[in-house]
């Protein structure tokens, strides 16, 4: 299985409004996705409406945290990012292996997450539209990538945005190509200043 196949397989839709990505152990990520799907289906069966993003994040956090309490099960080795759009508006949360979960305006996980978080903190998120955000994310991902150490980067993005009527979809390839060019140009301009 190629890295691209692995990444695509870990981008999971629970419904057209919920999305989850994981960083860490593949099997643990699959297990959490299965559990989150079960929670979402159970909520739908009982309440006849899609589960709110905050609620599914809390339920998965409780499940992950329970695995840190007992010696009969091992803790999860995965960090999960959950994005949703429901009647409460947008929700972005990150679930850590300890079971701690926080809501964020922007977050990063995995290799290079510290650099990515620093770059995300510099953004004026209140004044970015979805297309500008895609450009900035491409710039940040390209900034975190080290050509000398890492394999060639394959840039993939998904979004829940007004352009998709707040459904989770892949960013169209033409927009992604423009974002990649924006990121490469921004990095070249920064390097020229240095």
Automatic annotation (TrEMBL):
Its EC number is 3.4.25.1. Keywords: Hydrolase, Proteasome. The keyword Hydrolase applies. This is Proteasome subunit alpha type-7, variant 3. It comes from Entomophthora muscae. The lineage of its organism: Eukaryota, Fungi, Fungi incertae sedis, Zoopagomycota, Entomophthoromycotina.
């Amino acid at each position: 299985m190629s890295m691209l196949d692995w990444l695509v397989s870990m981008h999971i839709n629970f419904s057209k409004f919920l999305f989850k990505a994981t960083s860490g152990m593949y099997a643990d990520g699959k297990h959490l996705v299965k559990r989150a799907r079960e929670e979402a289906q159970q909520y739908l069966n009982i309440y006849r409406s899609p589960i709110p993003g905050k609620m599914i994040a809390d339920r998965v956090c409780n499940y992950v945290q329970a695995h840190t309490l007992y010696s009969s099960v091992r803790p999860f080795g995965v960090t999960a990012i959950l994005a949703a759009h429901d009647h409460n508006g947008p929700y972005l949360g990150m679930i850590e292996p300890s079971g701690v979960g926080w809501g964020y305006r922007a977050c990063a996980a995995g290799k290079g997450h510290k650099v990515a978080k620093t770059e995300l903190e510099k953004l004026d998120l209140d004044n970015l539209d979805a297309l500008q955000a895609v450009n900035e994310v491409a710039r940040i991902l390209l900034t975190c990538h080290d050509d000398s150490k890492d394999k060639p980067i394959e840039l993939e993005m998904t979004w829940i945005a007004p352009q998709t009527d707040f459904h989770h979809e892949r960013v169209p390839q033409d927009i992604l190509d423009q974002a990649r060019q924006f990121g490469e140009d921004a990095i070249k301009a920064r390097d020229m200043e240095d």
